[in-house]
């Protein structure tokens, strides 16, 4: 692919691969956030069942410290809010990346068609 159209096709294809890699990472990030969200929702439901005077242990580094049920609930609610914010952000990025993917796929297709036409013209001239 030494022609200019071949190089354009190659660059468009490389950009498409880069966008696809970004999309894959975003999808993985979203899956991780969803798992964290579900885990924290489960913890929240378990904390809701606990008596107000229950003893809760919170791990801080390698140390277990006691905390109140109310503080544990507050911590879990804060984590859920942060995860929801992160999920919204990742979803926006995914939507944007999907649009970029669509546009780049069209660019690759157009570059490929242009390259194929040029190749056919060269072959027709050599015959």
Structure commentary:
The chain is mainly α and 127 residues long. It has one domain: Helix Hairpins. Helix content is 82%, strand content 8%. The protein is rod-shaped and about 90 Å long. 8% of the residues are buried.
Rg from alpha-carbon coordinates: 26 Å
Task: State the total count of DSSP E strands.
Answer: 2
Provide the CATH top-level class: Mainly Alpha
Name the helicity range.
Answer: over 70%
Major beta-sheet overview: 2 strands, antiparallel
Query: Can you give the mean pLDDT?
Result: 94
Q: Within the largest sheet, what's the order of strands?
A: 1-2
Short note summarizing the structure:
The chain is mainly alpha-helical. The protein contains 2 helices and 2 strands, in the order αββα. The chain is rod-shaped, with a radius of gyration of 26 Å.
What topology emerges from the helices and strands here?
Layout: H1 4-49, E1 56-60, E2 63-67, H2 69-126
Antiparallel strand pairs: 1-2
Helix pairs in contact: 1-2
Task: Looking at this protein, list some descriptive labels.
127 residues, mainly alpha, 2 helices, unfolded protein binding, coiled coil
């Amino acid at each position: 692919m030494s022609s200019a159209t071949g190089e354009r096709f190659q660059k468009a294809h490389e950009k498409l691969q880069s966008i696809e890699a970004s999309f894959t990472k975003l999808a993985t990030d979203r899956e991780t956030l969803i798992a964290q969200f579900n885990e924290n929702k489960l913890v929240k439901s378990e904390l809701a069942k606990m008596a107000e005077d229950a003893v809760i242990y919170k791990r801080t580094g390698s140390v277990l410290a006691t905390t109140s049920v109310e503080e544990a609930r507050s911590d879990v609610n804060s984590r859920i809010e942060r995860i929801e914010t992160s999920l919204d952000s990742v979803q926006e990025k995914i939507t944007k990346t999907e649009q970029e993917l669509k546009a780049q796929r069209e660019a690759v297709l157009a570059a490929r068609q242009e390259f194929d036409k040029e190749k056919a013209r060269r072959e027709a001239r050599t015959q």
